[in-house]
Design brief:
- The longest helix has 31 residues, at 2-32.
- The protein is an alpha/beta fold and 193 residues long.
- Mean pLDDT is 87; it is low at 31-38.
- The protein contains 6 helices and 8 strands.
- It folds into 2 domains: 1-33; 37-191, 3-Layer(aba) Sandwich (Glutaredoxin), CATH 3.40.30.10.
- The protein has a 6-stranded mixed β-sheet. It has a two-stranded antiparallel sheet with strand order 2-3.
């Protein structure tokens, strides 16, 4: 009788383990096949960068919209405490080395920790704006970090990506949009979707 009960429990345990493995594999496969478009948000699309009057992270220089690039560029909302931000940091450094203009906005972060992070890991930013209270982030409809905006030469947001920028997100979404904006392409609306 005890042997029968043990065998029954062993079978139940094996079934539970197999179900757990099946669920895990399903989650991994589903996550891997998630289309890049799911990261696109449209809260700020076709709206101008909100007026800002903020200080830069390192030299506390006052920055306004007039200081922003007059050519297509990216705005990257990040924080030193953000794990996904640290994952995309190396790609941002590569993009900056390739000539992509990126303005950083440190979102709800301690200025000292943000400075230490950029000093240790390198800065991909033309300049980095402090947003310790999250006011700029709120005006940009930030839902979380990282969030990246593609902005045209007139200061209008043409694309908003919420979440980690991977090489595929760059190649399939952001790069075509930025290229269309730089070339004043008639197809920019489609490229920036």
């Amino acid at each position: 009788m005890k042997t029968l009960i043990k065998k029954t429990w062993v079978k139940i345990l094996l079934i539970i383990i197999m179900l757990a493995l099946l669920v895990t594999v399903t989650v991994i496969v589903t996550k891997k096949d998630t289309p890049v478009k799911k990261q696109t948000d449209d809260a700020m699309i076709n709206k101008a960068i909100p007026p800002m009057n903020a200080k830069t992270l390192f030299d506390e220089k006052n920055i306004t919209n007039a200081d922003l690039p007059q050519e297509p560029y990216l705005v990257n909302i990040w924080a030193s405490w953000c794990f996904s931000c640290s994952q995309e940091h190396e790609l941002l450094l590569q993009l900056q080395q390739q000539g992509t203009k990126i303005v950083g906005i440190t979102y709800k972060d301690d200025a000292t920790k943000a400075k230490e992070y950029l000093e240790r890991e390198g800065s991909p930013y033309l300049f980095n704006i402090q947003d310790s209270e999250g006011l700029i982030g709120r005006s940009l409809a930030v839902k979380g970090t990282p969030t990246t905006y593609t902005v045209d030469s007139q200061g209008v947001i043409r694309q908003q990506i919420t979440g980690l920028i991977t090489d595929s997100v760059w190649q399939e979404r952001i790069k075509p949009c930025l290229s269309a904006l730089k070339n004043n392409s008639q197809k920019q609306a489609k490229a920036c979707q």
